[in-house]
Amino acid sequence: MIKVVGLSVSLLMATIGSSAFAQANSEYYNDHYCTTCHGVDGIGNEEVSAPRLAGMEVWYLQRQLESFRAGIRGTHKMDLQGIEMRAMAEDLSDASIKDIVAWVGTWEFKPAPITFAGDAEAGKALYTACASCHGAQAQGNEAMGAPALAGQNDWYLATQLHNFKKAYRGRQPGDRFGSQMIVMASMLVDDTAIENIVSYINTLGR
After folding, report:
1. Contact at 8 Å (CB) between 26 and 96?
2. Residue ranges covered by each domain of the chain
3. CATH H-level, domain 120-201: superfamily
4. How far apart are CA 129 and CA 151, in angstroms?
């Protein structure tokens, strides 16, 4: 059974007002806020539902931070992870976002640990539709606006597929790529299908 990880409001947000984020310079923000959840090596942290950033494409990371800031992502009450990231991103300047993505771009790609054990062979058949955008090896395709999936935390991929399937993510006006993913995720009939497709992605890019 897929575990859709919930995320409580972080201790940082309980103790630090949003004005502190607006005043913080990018280096301080990076060192103290990004790494607190995503880890000093950017490998992600399931305990706080923070995905791997190490090796993530800078163009995709920039788009997501801008989407969180603009309220295109992280607005649905059931998108608990997105709500927290929106709070983190809403006061970022353009310059801060560029600094953050440049900094994250220096991290070495490290595949996240595998935690799922679904039917990868069944997932391979399901992944055929995904490959047209994300690539046969889940390597991503900037021209299609599709990020790499290989090596990402499997629990995070499952959570996002669930969010798209339930339209917790992708319904906001302006989220063109999210709306496309709602259509794709609707083809996954149940949690078992999501677990299988993620288990297949786990076999790629390692």
Report:
1. yes
2. 11-104, 120-201
3. Cytochrome c-like domain (1.10.760.10)
4. 19
Read off φ and ψ for residue 66, nearest 5 degrees: -65, -35
> Residue 178's pLDDT band (boundaries 50, 70, 90)?
very high
pLDDT in tens, 179-193: 999 999 999 999 999
Mean local confidence (pLDDT), 149-161 = 97
pTM score of the predicted model? 0.84
CA nearest neighbour of 83 among 6, 150, 190: 6
